[in-house]
Amino acid sequence: MADSGGTDDVISADEEQQAARERRLAAWRASARALARGAAEHRIGERLARLAAEPPAGYDLDAGVDLYGDGIVEELELRVAGLLGMESAAFFPTGTMAQQIALRCWAGRTGSPVVAVHPQAHVEVHERDAYLTVSGLRAVRPTTEPRLPTAEEIRDLDEPFGTLALELPLRDAGFVLPAWDELVAVVAAARERDAVVHFDGARLWESTVHFGRTLPEIAGLADTVYVSFYKSLDGLSGAALAGPESLIAEAKAWRHRYGGALFQQWPAVLSALAGLDRELPRLPSYVAHARVVAGALREAFAAAGVAWSRIHPEVPHTHQFQVWLPYPARTLDEAGVRLAEETGTTLFHRWHEPGAPGLAMTEVTVASPALDWAADDVTAAAHAFLARVREIAAAAG
């Protein structure tokens, strides 16, 4: 009987979590206003209809489907190589696969299995140590500070390394980027150490504003660059690895070995091409408006007398940034859902407590839906959100 009771408790908790998720999604989907629409808010029929109604510019939907990476896949690869100013590019079903193959290829060419990488980088935090466990590589840490490493830190590493991997922007540290001169110096320091440079550029597309440089200028600093099609371009999935023609040819061989040579990929590729048409030109406006939104939130929190709050970075480097508030994540999640249900406005999505309990953080994305929000709209929504936070906190005692 004791075992049965324990199972009932587990099932009950799972059902409670599922009910909470369904409630959140229903509230977000029904909201008339939001700063961005997350992938979980979309429905299959809506995405299929949009693919058919808004195909990439000039693409003939009567063309044949791709088979094992030909046709439309090759068109996307050519376009990405051109946009980044690289010799060649390869499409991958996931960024995790693209990253570990890139690092594996460079390890073979440099003769060194050692990768210099930040401990908060995507390959360390979100890929289940794929490059370590699958490819047998090893990491060294230039810095543990919540920022990209400096040139001095690269020069001072006390052991050799074959590849320097830089995530631009460094998402888990707050979507932060170095200054352009700092990035140039870091790359130069790696080359002084006879290392190659790989950019994890999943969100590189929106970094042009902060750097004040074009995509080819940014990508041109690195030997290889990985970019994502769904994180900022609203694609269904997929990634690309761009670099020298010979390395990309080798990467395609490894792509086949890793199971990445899919029979057909046209839905993801169509959405990627459409994202390059539709979202890529808009990203600078999203970055500019993110700074308006961040400033309005900061002023609203101060005016409301919040004991402590933080917008990080204070001036966002891209169209994404962190918001920190001194309340439990559960309280903030509930306040956000109530705000959406009662006013039709989604201001924040999920909150997390990555540090001390009772201190929560959320990531804010400013995309096309946010462009209709003036600073006063953000301020009003923030005050309405905080009012619900305080109601919930007071009820909890």
UniProtKB/TrEMBL annotation:
Its cofactor is pyridoxal 5'-phosphate. It comes from Streptomyces coffeae. This is Threonine aldolase. It comes from the Bacteria. PANTHER family: L-THREONINE ALDOLASE (PTHR48097:SF9), L-THREONINE ALDOLASE-RELATED (PTHR48097). Residues 68-299 form the Aromatic amino acid beta-eliminating lyase/threonine aldolase domain. InterPro entries: ArAA_b-elim_lyase/Thr_aldolase (IPR001597), PyrdxlP-dep_Trfase (IPR015424), PyrdxlP-dep_Trfase_major (IPR015421), PyrdxlP-dep_Trfase_small (IPR015422). Belongs to the threonine aldolase family. Keywords: Pyridoxal phosphate.
